[in-house]
Amino acid sequence: MLSMDELIQQLEDIRNAASDVKKVPGARTIYLGAGWFSDRQIETLLASYKALNNNPTISYVHVPLLNQFGGQAFDENGDFNPDFTWAVATYNADITAIQNTDVTLGVITAGNEDSGTAFELGYAAALGRPSVAFFDGDWEAKPINLMPAIGPSSYVRSTDELATFNFMSIATRVYEGKII
């Protein structure tokens, strides 16, 4: 598994590499909710971030991991031991970011769902804001909980779809797959 410093560096490299992508007028801002606590989640986060940065309908992608309070990113295997002050400040920063972006995207990985991402999608729904889920993995073998399946305005099933999805005109798409 990548170290936290390596993951952050890869995210910054992706952002810098996409700086030449021509954006359409009125391109949207995105809050990218995704876990980074397993190899699969990290792989999907990096691929999603790359696809979103290369999508011409997106002007900015907010990644919570790149915006942790005090520059201290939580790493289950690291030395940083977050305290209550860090937790409250990070939570408030994430809530503010969801409020300030146009669309919330939640990456939901089959069999390895991140509860924080589910909350972020729910919070966007409570605000009446558009949300899109990226359902990654085999959802027939590992059914999804009904809340993240039903809650988002639309969904995609691949990073190729993320790269071309029109975030300026989000077409409703009803989840088709097993739910629990």
UniProtKB/TrEMBL annotation:
InterPro entries: Nucleoside_deoxyribTrfase. It comes from the Bacteria. GO terms for molecular function: nucleoside deoxyribosyltransferase activity. Its EC number is 2.4.2.6. SUPFAM superfamilies: N-(deoxy)ribosyltransferase-like. Keywords: Glycosyltransferase, Transferase. Pfam families: Nuc_deoxyrib_tr. This is Nucleoside deoxyribosyltransferase. It comes from Weissella paramesenteroides ATCC 33313.
